[in-house]
Write a sequence for this structure.
């Protein structure tokens, strides 16, 4: 009888363990993103063409405006300045020279654009959208450029900043195509609230930090 | 997992425990409910955490003192969070890169097996057993990255090996077991892992 009571006692303990385990597991072990702040939702993706020898480049050209995709609303000048200054600062830190003479063709052209539409299912770095005409300085740029072949599918949301590095040597005016050798996508930062300028700068800095192959100081 | 799902699961557990208690007379059949934990999946770079959330149901019918046939259903959940920079190296392309952001990863497995077990020991005593199962496993992998969610759902053919012990009392029994579950490749992905369970069951033959 005592043995039976003992066995019943610890069988009850097993019951309790099963239920307790499930309760504790449900409460503690599930992970979700429902309580993330906007800043914690930021994602920085960078992609590059592995066949490109970035160390063969030295200068870049860049427009003084940020293009907007999917909306006629212009990005406010302060935000544009923040984006462009962050790019210039990182390019300078990595040993690149900005080419301001529009009669000289630089090795690459940098473009910055902000998507104000959702592009779910877009291919890496290249949300597919109708081309937009753009001329910068004395350099002709032809859109749409074509993406690197293959790659995974990502989705980008409203407010994503895209930075493209377009090598002028591979431009094909006859085909109106230009391939990007490096692209950075900073997801969703432009239209959200919060310390936007600092977030934009931090995330663009992160894009360069995770792209060490762009650092000409290390390769020369 | 939302709160109402937790409530549904707890109700399910309570109903199952009540059903087990009520079925204690039929001793040529055996059923149990278990709490499961599992090690990180083997040869898998998606999930490197342990699972401490899972449960299982199982039924067996004894055809002799030692041999039983039955079926089992189990569930395990793995979850992880990381903000490390991840390298991107898609195969068969000239593109590589990196991604930085808070990632939530989750993995759910639902193995459903037809099983057979060979039990040792005398009637009424502790019954060590080993067994095998074959069937299917439904698997979901979810990656939350920023505001984007990538989800893959796959059915696999699956097999499992198992050993454990049934410990009887006057009114119920306890079960402890360890399983190795192998989900065969489908959609370019296979999955295998080891889980351990503790649970309560009906009386058995």
């Amino acid at each position: 009888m005592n043995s039976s009571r003992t066995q019943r006692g610890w069988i009850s303990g097993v019951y309790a363990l099963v239920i307790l385990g499930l309760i504790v597991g449900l409460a503690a072990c599930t992970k979700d993103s429902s309580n993330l702040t906007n800043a914690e939702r930021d994602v920085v993706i960078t992609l590059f063409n592995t066949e490109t020898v970035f160390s063969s480049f030295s200068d870049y050209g860049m427009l003084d405006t940020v293009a907007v995709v999917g909306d006629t609303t212009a990005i406010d000048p302060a935000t544009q300045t923040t984006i462009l200054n962050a790019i210039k600062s990182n390019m300078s830190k990595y040993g690149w020279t900005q080419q301001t003479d529009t009669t000289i063709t630089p090795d690459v052209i940098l473009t910055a654009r902000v998507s104000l539409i959702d592009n779910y299912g877009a291919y890496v770095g290249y949300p597919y959208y109708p081309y937009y005409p753009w001329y910068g300085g004395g350099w002709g740029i032809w859109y749409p450029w074509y993406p690197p072949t293959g790659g995974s599918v990502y989705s980008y949301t409203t407010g994503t900043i895209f930075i493209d590095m377009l090598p002028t040597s591979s431009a094909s005016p006859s085909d109106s195509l230009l391939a990007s050798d490096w692209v950075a996508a900073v997801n969703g930062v432009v239209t959200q609230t919060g310390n936007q300028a600092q977030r934009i700068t931090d995330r663009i800095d992160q894009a360069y930090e995770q792209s060490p192959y762009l650092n000409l100081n290390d390769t020369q | 997992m939302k709160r109402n799902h937790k409530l549904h699961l707890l109700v399910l557990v309570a109903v199952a425990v009540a059903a087990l208690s009520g079925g204690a007379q039929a001793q040529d059949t055996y059923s149990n409910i278990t709490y499961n934990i599992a090690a990180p999946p083997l040869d898998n770079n998606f999930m490197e955490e342990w699972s401490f959330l899972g449960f299982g149901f199982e039924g067996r019918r004894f055809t002799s003192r030692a041999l039983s046939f039955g079926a089992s259903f189990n569930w395990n959940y793995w979850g992880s969070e990381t903000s490390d920079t991840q390298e991107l190296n898609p195969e068969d392309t000239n593109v590589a890169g990196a991604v930085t952001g808070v990632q939530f990863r989750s993995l759910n497995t639902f193995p459903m097996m037809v099983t057979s077990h060979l039990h040792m020991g005398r009637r009424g005593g502790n019954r060590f057993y080993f067994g095998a199962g074959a069937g299917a496993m439904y698997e979901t992998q979810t990656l939350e990255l920023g505001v984007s969610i990538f989800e893959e759902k796959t059915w696999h053919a699956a097999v499992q090996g198992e050993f454990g012990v049934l410990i009887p009392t006057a009114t119920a029994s306890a079960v402890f077991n360890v399983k190795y579950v192998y989900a065969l490749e489908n959609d370019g992905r296979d999955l295998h892992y080891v889980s351990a369970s503790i649970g309560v069951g009906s009386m058995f033959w």
